[in-house]
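In response to a reviewer's request, we include the raw inputs and outputs for one of the modeled complexes. The two entities were modeled together in a single run.
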Amino acid sequence: MKLTLKVWRQKNSKAVGEFKTYQADHVSPDMSFLEMLDIVNQDLIMKGQEPIAFDHDCREGICGMCSLMINGVGHGPKTAITTCQLHMRSFSDGETVTIEPWRALPFPIIKDLVTDRSSFDRIIQAGGFISASTGAAPDGNSIPIAKPDAEQSMDAAACIGCGACVAACPNGSAMLFTAAKLAHLSFLPQGKIERHQRVLNMITVHDAEGFGNCTNMGECSAVCPKGISLDTIARLNRDLVMAALKGLEPTVGIPVEG
Amino acid sequence: MTGVLTLYRTSVGKKVIMALTGFILVGFVAFHMYGNTKLYQGPEVFNAYAAGLRDLGHPVLGYEHLLWIARVVLLSSVVLHFWSAMALTGKSQKTTAANAVGTLKRYGVQKRQTGYAAYTMRYGGVLIFLFVIYHLLHLTFGAVGYNAEQYQHPALDLKNNTYIYNVYNNVVYGFKNPWVAGFYLVTMLFLGVHLFHGVWSMFQTLGLNSAKYTGLLRGLAILVAAAVTIGNLTFPLAVYFGFVQ
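The model returned the following structure tokens for the whole complex.
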């Protein structure tokens, strides 16, 4: 396969970026998308040019490092997979493929296609935990949890925090990420107790980090490599209304700019 | 106990304000459409309906009391709905403008994955807002869109000390103007799309949606949007094609 790549190149977060066109002439349909980029980078290195910087780690769809907006869709044209799980057979010979980084205020571009997603970590720090001291690992089934609750908690816990939801959202909102992290805890007895305080704290940081506001479009769920459902967002909304009715105040400090 | 301010301070809180005020406004448009179907029962019934709105809740409530309560509630709903939308949109635009490809485009290429209705909410909302202003100046105040002598203001009936309404006349003359009728028709289509996303979205934002009910709520949204839009579209068309004279 021969492909034409239009790749976003940007030296650092301050520099002005631009699209550059590259030819990938020796692409096998069995390559993963990231392997294809490796080959292109090898060529660039041999020519003495700067290789394309992109995020990757496990290359099996569980770490959440790979990102990439491919032809205008987060993680490319296939549903419910990450970029590293995308194979070149999903593209046709001679196609032009546009590759861009996630674009949102809380995800500064570090270089080319690499973005800084530590704003997600700060949302987690605001409430992605339970504050009870748990001691050693408890015996399995010592706290009975209903099967449907366990299932829904696990579905939400599948979130790998890749940021595709923010990238796809026309509002740049991180509601799906935040909602998944909340639902993962609030379905379980250990996490249920603090659910209202937790939602308030995490949304406060979500807003302070500069994420946009959800308008229930569903673009996030459509590109989510783990297929997290919009139900989690409804659950977040319900818990926030409860927090307001209970008169709770946020107990987190708002992160300082920079 | 300033926790209630969460609704004002957080993004989700502002959305809850939009959902609650939206609920009131959806109720209004549905009632407005239903009431107007009396147009087809002739001038007497329709004019009596207009007069009757002022006497709603009689004899418990006084003349025009409920009407004024409704007006205040509706106006505050519009103001709050609009204010929340502006605040939320402003912040979202700041988020997506950063690291964007250009001033107008966020991505070089971006493909829509979900329905189009949600994308029209902001434009539709502004259009509907402008329409409401025109609609009031037109049919309520008779200030625009009529030729001389066409609009009949409420006349004082000194004998019974009440007003006589001829809104039937005003509707018929009002929609005879093709520009006015055209603007009305276009806005109703946008209103339909706005309701299709808005009614479902309202439940989602209030946290009343789930995988179990989402189909049902989508169905309800289609029903409300279709009923209001189709109902409202028939009025100017009926006048324009002479079914109502």
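As requested, we also summarize the result in words. Residues 65-97 of chain B form the longest helix (33 residues). The radius of gyration of chain B is 21 Å.
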